[in-house]
Amino acid sequence: MDNKIKARLIKSDKNNIWHPFTQMADWINNDPCAPLIIDKAKGSYLYDIDGKKYLDGVASLWVNLLGHRNPKIDKAIKKQINKGSHTTFLGLTHVPAIELAKKLISILPKNLKKIFYSDNGSTAVEVAIKMAYQYWQFKGEKRQFFFSLKNAYHGDTIGAVSVGGVDSFHSSFKSLLFKSYFAMSPYCYRCPYRKKEITFPLNAKNFKNHNAKVGCKGECIKQVEDIISKNHKTIAAAIIEPLNQAASGMIVMPKGYLKEYANLCKRYGVLLICDEVATGFGRTGKMFAVEHEDVKPDFACLSKGITGGYLPLAVTATTNEIYNAFLGKYEEFKTFFHGHSYTANPLACTAANAALDILKKDKILNKLQPKIKHLEKELTELSKHEKVGDIRHCGVMVGIEIVEDKRTGNPYDYKLKLGAKICTNMRKDSVIIRNLGDTLVLFLPLTITEKEISKIVSAVKEEISRLRLL
Ligand SMILES: Cc1ncc(COP(=O)(O)O)c(C=O)c1O
Questions:
Q1: pLDDT grade, residue 422 (50/70/90)?
Q2: Quick check: CB of 127 below 6 Å from ligand 1?
């Protein structure tokens, strides 16, 4: 692109836009790379306005599922545009939403029978929280608190922040939030209860072996039991990102943890919300993360990959038991008073229908298994690097924690912003990834190839190795 036009675009961006999760002082003044302006996308790649090609190693913030400009999804959306792009879902319905609900119910855990639409991951969580809260009112029980985990991330709206446990994102809003109980995060690498001499990376094969291996007595799950057993009469629901606390650095739970968490909820009569916004639609290697441990939640929150990463759409799926509690006469005011202007947008539902058809017809999850094995192999190699403290890996979601000292796990001074620097430098290798602190995050579309996986991992290795020069 002509340099003058480019300069004008950059100036206009900096003058007019406030970007999410971005320190704008850095963006405006110090960012060593002028903002990268993306022009188009195809398959696993993004192209900037100069035509330079980049591998999209974070699936455009964890949404892209089947490649950019997937021909089948493109075609379906174009067809729907010719029919109409939006109608309200309040008091009306439409074919794409009806079809999608049926398809979702056929693939979700069998107890989830009702689909409530909204338009992003945070609202899917808000809906689950409000439904759980109101359900107990109808049951005549005063349950006003929620239970969650440290390092949990469920979105940025106030309800979702109230069950969020990432201090750097959430602590400023403390006095605005409703009360939630928090147990420690199952973050094995930084667990204060583990034996000091354990060497990492650690790949726990199951929770019991894991306990023996790291020398802890399962303090993380013990805390869950302590809090729930003491407070269950006031807890409306417990929420969890099944298998992987993604936004705090891909904190992968030891095998068995999720099942135990779900069992405790069941034992003490606390509703369970599984937030599959990040993990849903194959990212763990199965359609939903709960399938790995045969967990049947009372609510599943879905978004991100649901439309193949094309359009905003979210779902809160729940049971007949919850749904039936809201039935009543008009004057009883048992209606669920919640909805958004773009709830169940027909274009988004159409994209989701197409994405689900592709997942099924093209046997995407079968084809994904060797790719996950390949990724695992590449990561095992990378884990030997002296600056790699821990690699956490679940399906196509990966966190690579960079440390100053591999032996002690000592992190670098956060002010060095090494994670961010590595990601910026990787653009020179034509790869885009993002960091969460000093954890580098890979989040891959299911259609990625083994060759592309190797390219991303080798770019990571290359840039970490350059750390010595810093
Ligand atoms: C587990 C989880 N829940 C909820 C959200 C929020 O989704 P959204 O950004 O669409 O509001 C995210 C986003 O990363 C997430 O990872």
A1: very high
A2: no
